[in-house]
Each structure stands twice: as structure tokens, then as C-alpha cells.
Specification:
Elements (H helix, E strand, L loop, with lengths): L11 H22 L6 H5 L25 E3 L6 E3 L16 H4 L1
Antiparallel strand pairs: 1-2
């Protein structure tokens, strides 16, 4: 960018006034040019809300009963393999997994 060194210099007040005016015009230009035409109904169709009616849906997962080498944790109530059983006398005879005992 070329600079004209012969042009009269502007004072700090002149620069401050120009910058405020420029900022005001930029703000109005941004607000008028940044409007996006988006249909809210179309945008909301892709979202599923929690608690949606799933009565027409069927599970595609086969559920197996608890196996001989598994236990149900008394804390989190998840079925886990015996290798994840916490071995401590402080559990009071309850079967607790390593994750809940930690």
C-alpha cells in the first residue's frame, strides 16, 4: 500500500472520530448482511428430543440371562464377569464390582 508523505497529518482526535464512525458503519453493515434465512421447523426435524414416543420401535438386540460366570453388582446393578468382582471383606457379603469399590 502506497503512503502519501506529503498529505497533511491527522491528529489523534481526528483518528478517533473516524474510527468510531467507521465502527458504527461496519456494525450496521454486518447486521444487515449476516442475516441467514433458515426455516426453524426444517432445522428442528433432524433432532430427537429425550422422552420421544418410541412405542412403535422394536429392539434388535438379543438379551441373554446372566451366565454362571457372571454376577450382578449390588451398587451399580450391572451384570459383570467374575473377574471384575472386588475381593474385600469390607463389602459385607455383597457382590460389588471393582469399579464401584474404587
Amino acid at each position: 500500500m502506497a503512503t502519501d508523505y506529503d498529505a497533511p497529518r491527522k491528529t489523534a482526535e481526528d483518528l478517533g472520530e473516524e474510527s468510531i464512525e467507521e465502527l458504527k458503519t461496519r456494525r450496521t453493515e454486518r447486521s444487515s448482511s449476516s442475516s441467514v434465512d433458515e426455516d426453524e421447523a426444517e432445522a428442528a426435524e433432524g433432532f430427537e428430543l429425550p422422552g420421544a414416543d418410541l412405542s412403535g420401535e422394536e429392539l434388535s438386540v438379543q438379551v441373554l440371562p446372566r451366565q454362571q460366570d457372571e454376577f450382578t453388582c449390588a451398587s451399580c446393578f450391572l451384570v459383570k464377569h467374575r473377574s471384575q468382582l472386588h475381593h474385600a471383606s469390607s463389602t459385607g457379603g455383597q457382590l460389588i464390582c471393582n469399579d464401584c469399590a474404587a
